[in-house]
TrEMBL record, chain A:
Occurrences of domain Radical SAM core (ranges): 57-306
Organism: Magnetospirillum gryphiswaldense
PROSITE patterns membership: MOAA_NIFB_PQQE, RADICAL_SAM
Protein name, UniProt field: FeMo cofactor biosynthesis protein NifB
Signal peptide: none
UniProt-listed CDD domains: NifB, Radical_SAM
Pathway of action: Cofactor biosynthesis; Fe-Mo cofactor biosynthesis
Extent of Low complexity compositional bias: 20-32
Record region (Disordered): 1-34
Keywords (A to Z) from UniProt: 4Fe-4S, Iron, Iron-sulfur, Lyase, Metal-binding, Nitrogen fixation, S-adenosyl-L-methionine
TrEMBL record, chain B:
The keyword Isomerase belongs to this UniProt entry's keyword annotation: no
Organism: Magnetospirillum gryphiswaldense (strain DSM 6361 / JCM 21280 / NBRC 15271 / MSR-1)
Protein name: Ferredoxin-like protein in nif region
Iron-sulfur keyword on record: yes
UniProt keyword terms in alphabetical order: 4Fe-4S, Electron transport, Iron, Iron-sulfur, Metal-binding, Transport
Length: 490, 62
């Protein structure tokens, strides 16, 4: 089950049941108020947003349009000159477009990707500093797809000036990137800002930025706009400080805290990349996220996607929808998205029932927690071939339930129809460190043997089962509850 | 008396366009250019285009 906002926790609202799964553990259910008490209007805002709800990210897709390239701050992890279509990280895009072009692209994507539920403007640049283009894009899209949700990402410096305009556009979600609440630490991250027609550097810059960010949070809360805070975890700079950030943003009504690892490479030409500042390991990130679990709700399924990403999280169809492939005469056909939503409603109910069964299975099993990885194409099922996985979703399982922990990107084992042993040895095995079992729909006997030699069990006994069902049955079986485990260990 | 944009390093983000108090900056082809006759170099203040430009030394005296 989700450890951010699970459907199940919502439907349990009002019932006097003991908390199950993530909520009763050190995992990341969030505040003591609990997910189960989430008001209906909040749930309605997030249930179809893949970035705000871990559960929704199994079903719904987002797209970003890079229409607002101007920025008003300089961050040490960003280099505005770098642009490469092979890269996947925030702030990177291969094409910029006008608001009119963006609207055409949205229509083209909506016609072909019925999972589309959210349009985001997330850089490169700052959506609220470059507000003219952001709002013009929303106006153009509203004319064509009135039901599409909008979402913006910003550093918050310019946001207080546009809070009323944002609210007018009926935007449900805003993400503010906040890396510090102590301006001294800010000086290590932000060399300068541009505010009210003037460049500020050093402590002055970080003080202004901090004040405006806190003002943004309060203004958004006053308009009932849900706020996600993104924080970049920079080891030795702000890693432990993010505990204070978490408390400060929670106090100002932020709904979700997304701690992302610094992506740092000299080849990117960023200040941190060039000075050798390293990013955190997967274990360091999880350790910090576990420490933060008592504060604001925590997001663990972020893929740090490109600024022009299209598709489900973890997939990127942006190269299929470049402007040269988009027909200027394209008309929006709402039927595919409507039908898809009907399917999702049925699937959600079905999956929820499966998760309840899985939890009953686990409640009877007292054993240490284990980490497992799952190859999935969506729908919350074990439905991807080992060789086709470009990422694995990581879950933690114990008697309290199955909790989503994060994802790990890998190189495809299957290269041009053949398994690649070098990829397995050099990439897959190191990336899957700490994982005991990998759940896949199918796997060849050779990679299965090689994984076993590295101490990782490949499980292909539960193809197309729900993730929670597969993991719970396996866990019960290895812990001697064979009567409830219907499948067998591969 | 005017500033100019170094085309080879300009990232075409357009931040300078909206900040220019004289509306002297506009997109021309793939990059932004400063119309020399309209640029006042902000009359002795720190030029706003230089203050907002994310690329060091991209905007210089013509």
């Amino acid at each position: 089950m989700s450890n951010i906002v699970s459907l199940q926790s919502i439907t349990k609202r009002g019932e006097a049941q003991p908390q199950t799964s993530g909520c009763s553990t050190k995992s990341s259910c969030g505040s003591s108020a609990g997910q189960g008490e989430m008001p209906e209007h909040v749930w309605n805002k997030i249930k179809d947003h893949p970035c705000y709800s871990e559960e929704a990210h199994h079903y719904f897709a987002r797209m970003h349009v890079a229409v607002a390239p101007a920025c008003n701050i300089q961050c040490n992890y960003c280099n505005r000159k770098y642009d490469c279509s092979n890269e996947s990280r925030p702030g990177v895009t291969s094409e910029r477009m006008t608001p009119e072009q963006a609207a055409l692209k949205v229509v083209a994507v909506a016609n072909k990707v019925p999972q589309l539920s959210v349009l985001g403007i997330a850089g490169p640049g700052d959506s609220m500093f470059d507000w003219r283009k952001t709002f013009e894009t929303f106006r153009q899209v509203e004319k064509r797809l009135p039901d599409l949700k909008f979402c913006v990402s910003t550093n918050g410096l310019a946001l207080p000036d546009h809070i009323d305009a944002l609210a007018d556009h009926n935007i449900d979600h805003v993400t503010v990137t906040i890396n510090m609440v102590d301006p001294e630490i800010g000086t290590l991250i932000y060399p300068w800002i541009y505010h009210n027609g003037k460049r500020y550097t050093g402590l002055d810059a970080s003080k202004i930025l901090h004040e405006r960010q806190m003002e943004s949070l309060e203004a958004l809360a006053s308009k009932n706009i849900l706020v996600k805070v993104n924080s970049v975890m920079i080891p030795g700079v702000n890693d432990q400080h993010l505990l204070e950030v978490n408390a400060a943003i929670k106090a100002r009504g932020a709904f979700l805290h997304n701690v992302m690892p610094l992506i740092s490479d000299a080849a990117h030409g960023t200040h941190f990349g060039l000075t050798g500042q390293r990013g955190p390991s997967a274990a360091e990130l999880k350790d910090l996220q576990d420490k933060l679990a008592g504060g604001a709700n925590l997001m663990r399924h972020c893929r740090q996607c490109r600024a022009d990403a299209v598709g489900m999280l973890g997939e990127d169809l942006s190269q299929d929808f470049t402007m040269d492939k988009i027909d200027a005469e394209v008309e929006y056909d709402p039927e595919a998205r409507r039908l898809y939503r009907e399917v999702v409603e049925r699937e959600r109910a079905d999956r929820q029932a499966a998760v309840a069964v899985a939890e009953d299975t686990l409640a009877a099993t007292a054993a240490p927690a284990r980490l497992v990885a799952v190859a999935t194409k969506g729908g919350g099922r074990v439905n991807q071939h080992f060789g086709h996985a470009s990422e694995f979703q990581v879950y933690e399982v114990d008697h309290d339930g199955v909790r989503f922990v994060g994802h790990r990107k890998v190189d495809n084992y299957c290269q041009g129809g053949w398994g690649d042993d070098d990829v397995l040895e050099d990439n897959l095995v190191p990336t899957l460190a700490g994982i005991e079992a990998v759940f896949v729909s199918k796997i060849g006997s050779c990679p299965k043997k090689d994984l076993a030699a590295a101490g990782i069990t490949a499980i292909d006994a539960y193809p197309f089962e729900y993730i929670e069902t597969a993991i719970a049955r396996w866990y019960a079986e290895i812990n001697g509850q064979a009567d409830v485990a219907l499948g067998s260990i591969a | 008396m005017a500033l100019k944009i170094t085309t080879s390093t300009c990232s075409a983000c357009g931040a300078c366009e909206f900040e220019c108090p004289n509306a002297a900056i506009a997109m021309k082809g793939e990059t932004y250019v400063i119309k020399a006759s309209a640029c006042s170099e902000c009359d002795g203040d720190d030029p706003k285009c230089i203050a907002v430009c994310p690329v060091e030394n991209c905007i210089v005296k013509a």
